[in-house]
Design goal:
- The protein is built from 10 helices and 15 strands.
- A hairpin with a 2-residue loop joins β10 and β11.
Length: 292
């Protein structure tokens, strides 16, 4: 049995700007697996992904990092195109291809203490799949994909279908300051966390960008400060990196406060570079020490 099993699609991401077009891999599965490969192997880990031929090279690179990877075949790989104009805050997103959702048959053989579901689109994980996993271990969910639906090639924000059914099976739930308003219609992270916990979620993590993060667990709030980056280079994958650090430390018995601070430090180091987290645990400890 693994300590953590991350399930999610590795994606093909195309970034188009007025000056260039860049193709690279992405997705929760990609950032989580690369991030945890940089940390000492104190927890056992498995990645379960799914896609077409595009992901084969990424799967092999992860296996060379001694990551246990199960890759299911699909006719296509999830393909996101993000097109930016002169104003980098103005983004047009298209989904040029979708991978098949994960099935009950694919998750049935999996054994882990925690299953982290990296949802990218609303139909990645059915209620039945989530419920099945919850009978074998604790379920951790990143909300983002449940709030995005594809029609044609366009991505549309949607309400969370089957929210109550999914949340009653969820132990760890992560969402950001924008997602919390969609899920609960509240601007207050504390009331959001308490409301989501009422569905049965044991630990709610709300990331708030440069304002830090909030963890609500066992009826207690933990205010987690953000660490100041030397420079902001690339925020892509920061939420996934937070989940990596948080679950990595929680599985070793750390408190929610300790795990949140460690996760926040990972995010800051990731923010300073393009691509997935590539620093070391010594870098993380140094950053946390300087902040004190």
């Amino acid at each position: 049995m693994k300590d953590i099993c991350c399930i999610g699609h590795i994606t093909h991401d195309r970034i188009v700007t007025p000056k260039r077009s860049l193709d690279l891999a992405g997705g929760t599965a990609f950032y989580f697996a690369h991030g945890i490969s940089q940390l000492p192997p104190r927890v056992s880990f498995q990645l379960v992904t799914k896609g077409g031929e595009y992901i084969n090279g990424e799967v092999e690179r992860l296996r060379k990092k001694n990551i246990d990877v199960t890759a299911y075949k699909s006719a296509h790989t999830v393909f996101f195109e993000n097109k930016y104009g002169a104003d980098s805050n103005n983004r047009q997103q298209r989904v040029l291809a979708k991978s098949d959702p994960f099935t009950l048959g694919e998750v049935e053989p999996l054994q882990a203490k925690v299953f982290h579901l990296g949802s990218l689109l609303a139909d990645d994980f059915s209620v039945e799949v989530v419920r099945s996993l919850s009978t074998k271990g604790r379920v951790s969910i990143d909300v983002q994909g449940y709030l995005r639906e594809v029609r044609g090639e366009r991505v549309y924000p949607v309400g969370w279908k089957d929210k109550a059914k999914v949340l009653e099976c969820t132990d760890f739930l992560k969402l950001n300051e924008h997602e919390m308003e969609v899920v609960t219609s509240s601007h207050d992270p504390r009331s959001v966390a308490m409301e989501l916990a009422s569905y049965g979620v044991r630990e709610v993590i709300v990331t708030l960008g440069s304002y830090g993060s909030l963890v609500y667990a066992d009826g207690k709030y933990y205010e987690i400060p953000a660490f100041r980056p030397r420079e902001v280079v690339d925020a892509t994958g920061c939420g996934d990196t937070y989940s990596t650090g948080y679950l990595y430390l929680r599985l070793q018995g750390a408190s929610p406060d300790e795990a949140g601070r460690f996760a926040a430090a990972l995010c800051t180091l990731k923010l300073e570079h393009s691509g997935p987290f590539s620093a070391t645990v010594e870098d993380v400890r140094r950053l946390m020490g300087r902040a004190r």
